[in-house]
Amino acid sequence: MYSEKVMDHFSNPRNVGEIENADGVGEVGNAHCGDIMKIYLKVEDDKIVDVKFKTFGCGAAIATSSIATEMIKGKTIEEAEKLTNKAVVESLDGLPAAKMHCSVLAEEAVKAAIEDYRNKNNK
Amino acid sequence: MSRRVYMDHAATTYVNKDVLEAMLPFYTELFGNPSSVHQFGREVKKHIDKAREQVAKAIGALPEEIYFTAGGSEADNWAIKGIAYANRNKGNHIITTQIEHPGLLESCRFLEKEGFEITYLPVDQFGMISVGDVENAITEKTVLISVMYANNEIGTVQPIQEVAKLAKDKKIVFHTDAVQAVGSIDINVKEQGIDLLSLSAHKFYGPKGVGALYVRKGVKLTNLIHGGHQERSRRAGTENVAGIIGLGKAIELAASRLEENSKRIKGLSDKLITGVMEKVPYTRLNGHPDNRLPGNTSFCFEFIEGESLLLNLDIKGIAGSSGSACSSGSLDPSHVLLAIGLPHEIAHGSLRLSLGDINTEEDVDYVLEVLPPIVDRLRQMSPLFEKVKGGK
Ligand SMILES: Cc1ncc(COP(=O)(O)O)c(C=O)c1O
Ligand SMILES: [Zn+2]
What we know:
The structure holds 2 protein chains of 2 kinds. By secondary structure, chain A is an alpha+beta fold.
C-alpha cells in the first residue's frame, strides 16, 4: 500500500533525534488521534543548518516527517515556510487516500517550529 | 533474513491440505447442482448432507439445525435480524456487548434505525462481561441476548454457559458469535444451552466465504436471503458446494485434534506472553490472563503506534495485526481496546499476534529476538517517550 519511497523513509528515517538548545521547536498532533510530530530547528543567518524530528505515529507519519526534514534542511526560513503538504506527499511518490491526514502534520510541524523561532527572535 | 512467521491466524488461516483435497473433486467431476433431480446433482447432495453432519457433530447439534452461510458475518446478520424480525410482536429489545465483531454490531445499529432498542453491555478491564449486568439489562421487551464466545482482538472467553442459562430461565433466545472459538475451544450447544451459534470455516483451516448458523430446533427465525429452496427453504442460493465440503472436513479435523492442538498452541502463546512481558518494559497484556483463546496474544506497547510496529515486523517477515487507528483506516483505535478502558494513546500501540498450527518454538524465539529492539527503536523516535526516559 505504501510506495517504495515511503518505505525507504520509514525504515531509514533521516534526521531522527533532538537538537539541544534548538532555535525553534514545533510539536503538533496529539496522542488521542494517533500521530504526534516534533521538529527541532537550528538556524544561522535565517538559514536552517540543522533539523531533527521525533514522531509518534504510523508509517505515513514517520515517512513524511523524515522527508520534510530533508526538504527544509539548508533552506532559508522563507523557503522552508513555503513547504506544503502536497509537496511532501509528491516527493514520497504519493500516499494512500486514508493516510493523507497523517501527512498534514509535517507541514504543520515545520510551520510551528518556524513560528517558535520567530517568536524567540522577534522576527 | 527471509524467515517468515505468520501470527495472524485470528484474521484467517490457510486451508489444510486434507481439507483442500476433499474440496477439489467438487470443482470438477462432482460439479452437479445439489438441487437437480439427476445423478449429477443427487450425488453432490449426499456430500452436502455429510458435511452438515460433520458440523453438527463437532458442536453437539443435530444436522437439521445447521444452515450453511457465506461466512461468519452472514451468520451474525441472520441471527440478529432474523430473531428480531421473528419476535417483533413480542418485543424490540436486544442485549449484546460493546466488544462484538462489526458483523454483529452493525446489524444491531441497522436494527436501531428500524426501531429496535439495543443494550451494549460494557466489559471490565479484562474484556469480561458481568452476568449480573446481563440480568439487570433484561426487560419484558427483551427478545435476544447475543454474547460472543471469544473476542477476536483480545481473546477473552466469556461465561457463555451462565449467560445461556440466564436467557433460558427468562425465556429469551441466546445467540453466540463463536467464529473465533470453534476449532480452539470444545463447544457443545446442547450441554451449554446455546440457541444460535455463528461459525466460519476460514478461522479453522477451512476455506474463506463459507460458514454456518446453528439454530436450535423450535427457535423461530425470519429468513434473510430469499429465493430458491436451498437449505430447507431457509437460505436461498445454489450452494457453495466445495466450500461446504471444506467446512465439514475442516471442522471434523479441528474437533479430532482440538485438545492436543490447543494445548500445544497455548504453550507457545504462554511462552510468547511471558517473553514479551519480561523483555519489553511499559507493556500491557490485553485480555483476560487465564480465560483466553489458546492462540491469542495481544499487547499494548506504550509510547509507540501500532501500524509502524506492524510494518517493522513485516520487514522482518513477521505477520501480526493492530487495533490502532492508522492501521484500521479510521480515526479511532479499536472499539474493543477502548471498551476495556485503555486511553486512546495506549490503544494506538496495540499488537495482536495470533498463533496457530504452523507456529513453532523457533517462531516464538524469533519474535522474542526481533520484537524488543523494534519497540525500542520506535520509542527512541517517539516524542512521548522523552518524558519517561531514564525512568526504566
Ligand atoms: C468474532 C468474529 N465474528 C465474525 C467474523 C466474520 O467472519 P467472516 O469473515 O467469515 O465473515 C469474524 C472474522 O473476522 C470474527 O472474528
Ligand atoms: Zn497515521
